[in-house]
Amino acid sequence: MKPTQENLFAALRSAFPTQLDATAIEAADGEGAPRYYTWRDLDRASAKIANLLASLDLPQGARVAAQTEKSVEALMLYLGVLRAGYVYLPLNTAYQSSEIEYFIGNAEPSVVVCTGRNHPWVSKIAFKAGTQNVFTLNEDRTGSLLDRAAQHSDEHTPAVKQADDLASIIYTSGTTGRSKGAMLSHGNLLSNAQVLKTYWGWRKGDVLIHALPIFHVHGLFVALHGALLNASKMLWFNKFDPKAVIARLPEATVFMGVPTLYVRMLAEPALNRDVVKSVRLFISGSAPLLKETFDEWRQRTGHTILERYGMSETIMLTSNPYRAEDGPRIGGTVGYALPGVGVRVHSDEGRPVPAGEIGGIQVRGPNVFKGYWRMPEKTAEEFTADGWFKTGDVGKMEADGRVTIVGRSKDLIISGGYNVYPAEIEGFINEMPGVAESAVVGVPHPDFGEGVIAVVVPKPTHTLQADAIITALKGKIANFKVPKKVFVLPDLPRNAMGKVQKNVLREQHKGLFQH
Ligand code: MCA
Ligand code: AMP
User: Fold this and answer.
1) Pick from 377, 409, 441: which residue ends a domain?
2) Ligand 1 pocket, 215 CB below 6 A?
3) Which of the residues 54, 175, 185, 396 could staple to 410 if both were Cys, CB 3.0 to 4.6 A apart?
4) Stated pTM of the model
5) Mean pLDDT of 320-328
6) Sheet holding 23-27, edge to edge
7) Comparing 175-179, 357-361, 378-382, which segment has the lowest mean pLDDT?
8) pLDDT value at 174 more than 90
9) Ligand nearest 315 Cα, by number?
10) Which residue, judged by its Cα, is nearest atom 4 of ligand 1?
11) What confidence score (pLDDT) does residue 173 get?
């Protein structure tokens, strides 16, 4: 029997409008006149990239890693990889060499695409790890990827994929330890996108402002798949600039952002009811949306932000209702399990907790990932015996199913929508000369939600400079992970068992960034 075609790209492609000459994307920032990309452009460019990849004789399931600045061409690369049937591995542009070395060493990609600027060091890491092909892609659309792709045909039949076949690997730390690659299948991504299309009422004529990075779930999957599956035009921003985004809101109907984007737009006097008249839906996620941001947004714009909850391992799992008849959108809650997704709250001992009581949030459904790349034991640890994934988030569920997140059992800081793992940063600090130990925590930050800080204890007879620690970290790890403030202190608070009391540090420094 002929296998059915369940390639995510094929589903997205079949949703393209019949009018292929219509604008699919308007690249709205940068200097000069806006650039327009038609649906035909997306089709042809992704075909050329898919044909280039196909010409490389890559093994089945080959990974294509990309650390490129956001651009429409980087989106075409993503589509080309899906189309050719390989596995897309996006990497945050802020990552530096030690981080990239780990990801490339762990994922063993056959192809790496990086910026021309980073090519000297990225290619060195990649070739050392056995990668055969390293291409460049720059923000100004130059680089060897497009040069090479240009030599290939602009027609390509999508590779036949099954729902269970791997489409993407997203690195995340889940709970503790080194980053783990969450393996997402074509079926995971497509089923979630289809559910969201209906649940959020995507309709003809919708225009999405896309202002998020495209190396994480929010910008790459939730926003992008939503617009593509609905044949919706995107107003595309490579970088988020609140003024520029507000200026284009009158042409948009849907906006998606992490809470920091809403906070920054609220700081702009130009944000008023008039500019949001055409918008039907503002969505927030990736980090807790403060009740005050939710309220202020409603007061300034008349719109009630829809907050939803997701994870790299599960894509979207809950959402506040879109339709009024499904209930109100309540600030501080993340709404209900999406159709087809199971969510439950269990105690540490593995028993269901009564409605309204706090426990660990667990999930199952077609959206839940296939496991961590080459880490079967870690994967097994994160699932219950009856097959539910343990999110590491702590929350409660009301009798009607509404979920509220109250904390995390995993030691994770979310800063401006980016995850920072204290253990990783502590590891880098502890390696520095003269450091005895350190503790990294997140404290309330008006812009980023949580701000990363570190308390560092010097070895006896050593003196440490806080600024020097920050400078040293900046050369080693992604900037968003670098503590905004370092305190050098003689010791860390510990409980009777000798365990560092991070809650005490959070309490001591909770007012640091608040004015
Ligand atoms: C930049 N910086 C940050 C952050 N971003 N520091 C802490 N946290 C951050 N998120 C650093 C810069 O390196 C710089 O450091 C300084 O802060 C000021 O930079 P600024 O120009 O203000 O930053 P920006 O370029 O405007 O970026 C801020 C941003 C960006 C637009 C909020 O962080 C962003 O796009 N965040 C969205 C992340 C996202 O899409 N997450 C979704 C993950 P210095 O001054 O030292 O140079 S997906 C997910 O979580 C799940 C699955 C879900 O549910 O969606
Ligand atoms: P990631 O590792 O990037 O997949 O981040 C997933 C984590 O982001 C979740 O486990 C939550 O802790 C957090 N998260 C996502 N959406 C929300 C939300 N709406 N409210 C609170 N936390 C959220």
Assistant:
1) 409
2) no
3) 175
4) 0.97
5) 97
6) 35-38, 23-27, 233-236, 207-210, 254-257, 281-284, 306-311, 315-319, 336-337
7) 175-179
8) no
9) 1
10) 480
11) 76
pLDDT for 408-456, tens place per residue? 998 899 999 999 999 999 999 999 999 999 999 999 999 999 999 999 9
Q: Give me the CATH number covering residue 433.
A: 3.30.300.30
Contacts of 189 (CB under 8 A, 6+ apart): 8, 167, 168, 221, 225, 315
Predicted confidence at residue 119, as pLDDT, reads: 98
Q: What is the Å distance from ligand 2's center to 287 Cα?
A: 5
Give the rounded distance of the alpha carbon of 325 from its chain centre.
Answer: 30
Token reading at 111: 């192809």
Q: How far is the CA of 468 from the centre of ligand 2 (A)?
A: 32
Assigned domain for 354 exists: yes
Domain tally, the chain: 2
d(CA 144, CA 84): 19
Distance CA(201)–CA(322), nearest Å, equals: 7
Q: Which residues lie with the beta carbon below 6 Å from any ligand 2 atom?
A: 172, 216-217, 285-288, 307, 309-312, 334, 391-393, 405, 408, 414, 419
Name which of 256, 281, 268, 245 is nearest 28 in CA terms.
245
Pocket probe mutation, ligand 1, options 91, 240, 258, max atoms within 8 Å of Cβ: 258
Host domain of residue 442: 412-508
pLDDT at position 177 is 63
CB of 89 closer than 8 Å to CB of 109: yes
Same domain, 345 and 377: yes
Q: Give the model confidence (pLDDT) of 34-90 as tens digits.
A: 899 999 999 999 999 999 999 999 999 999 999 999 999 999 999 999 999 999 999
